[in-house]
Every structure is written in C-alpha cells, then in structure tokens.
Amino acid sequence: MSGVLRRFNEAGIAEFVRRIEVLRTGASASIDDAFVTDDSFTKPIVPEVRLDRPAFKTKREAGEYLSERTLRARERYGDDDPGLWTWLSAWHWDAVCPIREGGVRKVLHPLSYVYGHGLAMRKKQHLIFASTLLYETFPHSLVLLSGPVSTLTQSVHEVYTRVWLMRVRGIGELLDLLYWDRSRNSVKPGITGTSPRPGDLRNRLTTRVRQLEKTYDLVDLTADQLLNLLGDEFRQWAQGIRPAKLEKD
Questions:
Q1: Taking the model in full, what pTM does it have?
Q2: Same domain, 215 and 168
Q3: Scanning 19, 31, 98, 131, which has the fewest C-beta atoms within 10 Å of its C-beta?
Q4: Are 180 and 228 members of one domain?
C-alpha cells in the first residue's frame, strides 16, 4: 500500500502502546492500515509526502529511504519528534516486527517502536530512528547497516549508543576494516563476546578510543589514521584486508 506520511497525536501514541502491550501478552491486536490512517489518531504531514512500504532487507535500505522521505517533516517538526518516528514504526510494522517462522511475531519492548517511550534517554532504542541516523552518519558502513531493521545487534549497540563515538567520522570505515569478514559477507565472530579479546569491539575498542581522545582530536581522522593510533592490538584484526595502506606506529 502507498499513502502519505503522517504523525501520531498523543492519543495515537497511547493507542499504539496499548496495542503493542496486548500483542506482548499473546493476545490479538491490529496494527494495520486502518489504524495508521485513522484521522482520530494521526494527521498528514503538510506539505504532503508520498510514502510507500518497501520490504526493507537491511538498515541501509531503510535508512536511505526514510532519510529522504522524512526530510521535510524533520525540517518542520525537528529530528526529535515522537509523533513522526512512532507513526513510522506502525506504518512499517512488518519491517520492524516481522512475521517469523511459524507465523508469529516477536514483539519487543515498546521502546523499540515508540520513540522515547517512558524514558527520553532511551529514545535511541527506536528501530526506525536508529536505521535513519546510522545511515545519515555512516552511509557506507557494513558492520552498522547490513543487519535487519527489526533488531539492534550488539555490534550496533556498542557504537550507536555512544554519542562521542558517533562523532568520530572514520569510525564506520574503521569498523568494516577491523570487523567485517568480506569472504563470508558478515561480521567477524567474537567481537562482542562477554569474555574480552585483544582488539575486540565490545571490550577494547571503545575503551581505547576513549583513551586516545584525551590526547588526540579524533573527529576528522580517517580509518587508517585511527588504526595507526590504535596499534598492533587492533591491527591484527585488519590483516589481509588492506595491508598496503597500514603503517606501523
């Protein structure tokens, strides 16, 4: 179905939360076209923005599409509008809460679908917002954007929830250089385990970058410049990828 971009009003957000909670109990509730176009719960964005419902396979696909389609709305209402982002979750319900094997959906906490629900500090858990912001910040990152819209992997969480790390422009390419397995077309195993490994993402990268920013201005450094500062502990993860471009400290 195609339609026009809308925003939920407060009643629409509350009703969406109610239906999510019903679904989480295993009971039935509709998040359908009648709901997302109900004039008592929603209002079209002015000027009108036409909207389709693509079958997003990755965060990159979702982010690229929604970044462009929400531009006018964000210019008017700001980047932080709960009505807009929450409505987009309902409109793209099959993307953020897909039907899984056996014909069931795994419905997550409302924070995943309702922007800033209950706690504004946790608004970055919103799946549609996450895909859009990640695309706009690191549009070419494989590690951050290759996963489905319906989940925030640990790899994404480690970077995306740290504002100071998101400001480092070379981080997206650095993650791919270190942690993307091009032969398997997937993230390398062992980078977010609870048991620390030298140079891993979860336990070492964020700590090391925090240390370096006390001495260096990292914001505009390239991935290779960052890697040279990180040192051998991290360089080992990049072996065989672009060795000619890497230099010893």
A1: 0.91
A2: yes
A3: 98
A4: yes
Q: 3-class SS at 50?
A: strand
Q: CA 231, CA 207: separation in Å to the nearest integer?
A: 13
Cα→Cα distances 88→112, 118, 163, 195, 203, Å = 12, 18, 24, 37, 34
**Alpha-carbon gap, residue 185 to 196, rounded angstroms:** 24
184 shares a domain with 120:
no
pLDDT tens readout for residues 197-241: 999 999 999 999 999 999 999 999 999 999 999 999 999 898 644
Q: Which domain holds residue 234?
A: 153-249
Q: What are φ and ψ of residue 4, in 5° steps?
A: -125, 150
Q: Which residue has the tokens 């979750």?
A: 89
Separation CA 96–CA 150 (nearest Å): 4
> Rounded to an integer, what distance in angstroms lies between the CA atom of residue 102 and that of residue 204?
39
